[in-house]
Design brief:
Keywords: DNA-binding. InterPro entries: Homeodomain-like_sf (IPR009057), Tet_transcr_reg_TetR-rel_C_sf (IPR036271), TetR_C_31 (IPR041583). The protein is mainly alpha-helical. The chain folds into two domains: about 55 residues, Arc Repressor Mutant, subunit A, CATH 1.10.10; about 130 residues, Tetracycline Repressor, domain 2 (Orthogonal Bundle), CATH 1.10.357.10. Helices cover about 70% and strands about 0% of the residues. It is built from nine helices and no strands. The C terminus is likely disordered.
Length: about 200
């Protein structure tokens, strides 16, 4: 992403997190980013394109956080639980604005077919990583179990930032314990396969 487009995307995400999608306008992005009027419109002509730009930036940031995924090698269910807990904790504690914006965008994608296609395409990458992780851990149903793990992560993030758990979000160790319990429930009783 070019630096100006990245600034626009990052600013749009911040606005979405703070004001919701109703607060996202081209003018609001220009002002918050300190750009000349019309700059955001030049790079993202429509509101849908501006939202897509923000969503794409979020996905790129998440991919950086995860690494390329090619090096995902937790080695064991315990290592996988630590990885899941760390990613979830990061979403809640390190950068809650990114997660709040992602939640807003997920709801909007449910109402907008163009955005739904972008959201689903980006989400497929993370689903693929989770499926591979579950396969490497010896899951008999890696696709179904990956979906369960992702739902747990997204549910924990929602509850911690917008749900009834927002007053007392879970600690990193509580997330680790929860992820470990989830993996024990999903994986075969025999020792999961080492990668």
């Amino acid at each position: 992403m070019r630096p100006r487009v990245e600034l626009i995307a990052r600013t749009a995400v911040s606005i979405i997190a703070q004001r919701g999608l109703r607060g996202l306008t081209h003018r609001a992005v220009d002002e918050a980013a300190g750009l000349p009027p019309g700059s955001t419109s030049y790079h993202a002509r429509t509101r849908v394109r501006l939202i897509e730009t923000a969503l794409t930036w979020l996905a790129e940031e998440d991919e950086q956080d995860l690494g390329e995924g090619e090096s995902l090698d937790p080695g064991s269910a315990g290592g996988a639980a630590a990885l899941i807990a760390e990613f979830t904790h990061s979403a809640v504690a390190r950068d809650p604005d990114r997660t709040r914006a992602r939640l807003e965008l997920a709801l909007e994608a449910g109402r907008n077919p163009d955005l739904r296609a972008v959201y689903d395409r980006i989400g497929a990458r993370f689903r693929g990583l989770a499926e591979r992780l579950m396969r490497e851990l010896g899951s008999p149903e890696p696709a179904r179990h990956a979906r369960t793990v992702i739902a747990w992560m997204e549910g924990m993030a929602f509850d911690s930032l917008a749900g009834s758990g927002a007053a007392a979000p879970p600690s990193r160790s509580e997330l680790h314990e929860g992820a470990a319990e989830l993996l024990r429930a999903l994986l075969p009783a025999s020792r999961p396969r080492e990668s």
